[in-house]
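Bench log, entry 3. Co-assembly request; chain sequences pasted below exactly as received.
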Amino acid sequence: MALPDTLLKIRDLRLVIETMQGRFSVLNGVDLEIRESEIVGLVGESGSGKSTLALATIGLIPRPPAKVLEGSRILFKNEDLLGLTENEMEAIRGTGISMIFQEPLTSLNPLFTVGDQLGESVVIALERGREAAPIPGPPMAPGEARPDGKGKTVATTRSRPDDGKKLNKEEVRLRVVAWLRRVGIPDPEHSYTKYPHEMSGGMRQRVMIAMAMEAKPSLMLADEPTSALDVTTQAQILGLIRSLKNEFGTSVLFISHDLAVVAQIADRVAVMYAGMIVEEGAVGEMFESPRHPYTQALLASFPGEQSKDEKLQVIPGSVPSLKDIPPGCPFHPRCLYAMEKCKAARPVPKEVGADHRVACWLY
Amino acid sequence: MALGLDRKELVLNLKILSRDPLYVVGAITSLTFVLTALVVSVFGTGFLPYDPDKINLSVTFLPPSSAHLFGTDNLGRDILSRVIAAAPVDAEIGFVIVGASSLLGIALGSVSGYFGGRVDEVMMRVTDLFLAFPSLVLAVAIAVALGPGINHVIEATFVAWWPIYARLARAGALSLKESQFVNAAKVAGASPFSIIRRHILPNNVSPIVVYATLDIGNAILYASVLSYLGLGAQPPQSEWGSMVYQGQNWLGSAWWVSIIPGVTIFIVALGFNLLGDALRDTLDPRYRR
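Structure output for the full assembly:
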């Protein structure tokens, strides 16, 4: 079976943060691949480096105090992002890689209407002569009729003004309204004029998704986008991300500490522990036959299968301090199967099945 | 709208604020001051009971009475008329100093705070240079060097005035640049320039507007000090600070000559302070009720 092309390839990414309190090893040799048009779920406990990995990928980690160690590679479309200047990186953000965050309220400027803010990114994308955002597909909001002919007008409008100048205001507005409709915001014409604080968390996250998708990025990093939302809204947002991915072929790195959410949305899963990917594989296989003791323990500690009286399983010990990562396999102090070898040498990722890699000396 | 309030909210806020008599007093005082200044600068001093500059040596040092509400000074000029005639000058002093300082301060501080690093170092060390001088000494030195005159007082005070605003705006920018919406704008591909323009500057404005309002009274007082030292308005032009200065010689015998303009400065400063408090309560979400 031919696998789709690789879009993002992270190789041996090591990142330390040097502060007055000491040197924190946040990422300790991350290897991760994201292919064209797939959703990769990234799971792990708090402090395992998930968000740092995403921020490093999009170049938002301030360096210093963070420092990327020699030999690290973040290859995006075969270009090493770590070697780019800030200006070059700026050109990749938005159209190449975009990102959504956990807290959708603070992700929007309180002083401007959502329409205003979405318009900003439409203009940014077009002003720089990038490929214009395609007008999204049919409306999603139930009972929301597309104003007669209006949607059509946008769809057939030249997607890029020939002189490379700004779209006129009305065109930008129509484009934004189409996007609001696409991400399932009811009454988009009216919502266009709302301020962020007038919207619910779920609606704001939809706005953020529209903002991140407007320039049709190849990769969207989603840092716990549903963690602050209630379960019903969560499901809707997951559905939205999936349908946008299918429509535009955007790959998604979906970060979450919630295994149930990842099981629902991801094509492949990577498990992170102490700044390393310990196991990586297709979602079905990973959840059915996890190989790494950490993944096994993580799945076992997930509530659901136990009877009422049975105690929830926990992983003994706690995540190692980033200042003091144990030598060898970072999980060995908590591992039930730890051997002498685990204390001495860091395990190398090994293929244990079709498209399933695990970094553990047991295999 | 740019301050994060829509019209409905603004009206509601004004209603709530109007229940507090202190805010009403502040608003009325500030408004009276501004209106007086406008009326005098448009229509001149013709409507006043007496010509503010007219010397009449037969009526010197009259105490407050029904003919001269605030009394007369050593040259027999009506103090009420002179106080009113001075309003535009003092309004100009307050608004120009504070306005120019906040514009320069917001611009410099936002850029400095957002970029950080070397840009920040250079800009803030320059600011420190100004802050290191006792500001009054600095202003006096500049005013002396420029020579007496209202415009020179304004310029001198401005030089001593803007660094506080730059510091304030920088502090705002430092916290704003860590905010999630700035990150969100960055990941959407926004340039540093557009982030400063769209996200840092507007969010920086409302705390500075509040501070500036509180500061108008201070600026007038400050410039009065320079006038008091004889660096400001030159006779026969009336200005509150210089009126206090000229009257002090007769403080024992004719207190009204310097006390009345002094009280006027005090009331205007107090009015703007109360108004600034009210504005803060309206604009700062933490105080919103």
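Confidence is low (pLDDT under 50) at residues 138-165 of chain A. Residues 231-248 of chain A form the longest helix (18 residues).
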